[in-house]
Amino acid sequence: MKKYKICVIEGDGVGKEVIPETVRVLKNLGDFQFIKEYAGYECFKKYGDAIPSKTVETAKECDAILFGAVTTPKPHELEGKVYRSPILTLRRELDLYANIRPISNFRDIDFVIIRENTEGLYVGREYYNPCTEEAVAERVISKKGCYRVVKFAFEYALKHHRKKVTCVHKANVLRVTDGLFLKIFYQVSEEYKEYNIEVNDYLVDTTAMYIVKNPKIFDVIVTTNLFGDILSDEASGLIGGLGLAPSANIGDRYGLFEPVHGSAPDIAGKGIANPLATILSGAMMLYYLGMKKESKILRMAVKSVVEKGYTTPDLGGNLKTREVTDKVIEEVKKYS
Ligand code: ATP
Ligand code: MG
């Protein structure tokens, strides 16, 4: 088997705890070359740069990127200096347009949110007009942006044997922007007619309600940037919080895998961060690299660790980060 090159960026806070643990697990599943690079607020303080160009270069040379978490400093800590989050830089530089967030508790809840990752309200076009005393944010929805993320969602559904794709929008109010997203959604769905994938659409507010009330109606959700951000955090509440929520950022050429959670400064350094969100992101990376068997073994290993109650305090257990990882590795060895 090919020896894959993995760019490893720990970042800040608990990123420095959960990433090494995930690397330790991955070493039991394949022969990888791990290349460590730097990014984040600590990197910024040390080198004056939140993401040195060498980090981006290495990321582009590798087969996949494993990313921990980075701290966003408070404005007063910056003393007027400009800090742009490295993850936003990477998403842009590598054109990682689809953000995939599977929501699964390994039992009855199992759906995936695919969020457009490059445009919408996140383009950073905000201004204040003192004449009219209006603050304005521009929401950019391009044809190309809609097409590629919707297409990605259908391809994802096919590959993962999913049966339904739901478009989530607010086209009744945002007639032009979400109108375009919705129109392209149904256009693309025509290309997938022969596969018998059910398609439908919901308003974002209705979706927020159903995620709490009846999440089983969802299979694959595809939506714009801000809605996807909010709904996926809401949905992670269904599966016991951020400690179990993995994610992938995918483009046509690169894939970056990271836990949904941030650097969790409140628990950093205590050895109690839940490593499972990052380990599950590692499983998504294995799948992306074509190591389907290994990916499945890793997911099964995490499932049995959770079922047996070998968890950190956030999931009600009393194990340390390291001990949970040891349990995962034990299970991996059983299945391999
Ligand atoms: P950032 O600014 O880096 O996004 P944050 O505080 O906004 O940090 P998170 O880091 O996602 O957001 O943390 C939110 C809450 O979830 C915190 O209370 C944190 O302790 C908890 N949390 C996050 N990640 C984990 C983890 N891996 N294990 C246990 N608890 C976690
Ligand atoms: Mg956060």
Automatic annotation (TrEMBL):
Gene Ontology BP terms: coenzyme B biosynthetic process; isocitrate metabolic process; L-leucine biosynthetic process; tricarboxylic acid cycle
Alphabetical list of SMART domains matching this protein: Iso_dh (SM01329)
Enzyme Commission number(s): 1.1.1.87
Residues in Isopropylmalate dehydrogenase-like domain copies: 5-328
Sorted UniProt keywords: Magnesium, Metal-binding, NAD, Oxidoreductase
A Gene Ontology molecular function term of the record: homoisocitrate dehydrogenase activity
Name of the protein described by the UniProt record: Methanogen homoisocitrate dehydrogenase
